[in-house]
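Renewal narrative, Specific Aim 1. Our central claim is that a sequence can be written position by position from structural information alone. The example that follows is taken directly from our test logs and has not been curated for this report. It begins with the structure tokens describing the chain, in the order in which they were read.
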């Protein structure tokens, strides 16, 4: 199984993020929303972006308590994130479409979903 991270921004942003937070993962940077829209992700409406502020604030404070800090915003701040598990045949076995930035699936859920994949 191979885990990768794809984010919006430039290669230097992916290098900085993965080098610090996930040094064992390959990271890729997309300079446009195209990979996101190809996976069915979308931009939040202005109302959704503003309305999700309370959830995002809670996640922000939690991250700050853990020593993380938001610096410059790169890419499209309104692009909604998602998490996918894809098998070696290219079949999506798990898809999570985030409701707001910082809305991520629980790690235990991802591990359980990944364990259903047949190793090759």
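The sequence written for that structure reads:
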């Amino acid at each position: 199984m191979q885990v990768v991270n794809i984010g919006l921004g430039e290669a230097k942003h992916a290098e900085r993020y993965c080098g610090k937070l996930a040094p064992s993962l390959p990271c890729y940077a997309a300079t446009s929303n195209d990979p996101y829209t190809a996976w069915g992700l979308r931009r939040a409406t202005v109302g959704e972006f503003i309305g999700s502020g309370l959830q995002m604030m809670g996640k922000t404070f939690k991250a700050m308590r853990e020593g993380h800090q938001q610096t410059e915003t790169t890419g499209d701040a309104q692009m909604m994130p998602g998490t996918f598990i894809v098998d070696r045949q290219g079949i999506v076995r798990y898809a999570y479409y985030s409701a707001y930035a910082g809305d991520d699936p629980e790690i235990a859920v991802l591990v359980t979903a990944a364990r259903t994949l047949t190793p090759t």
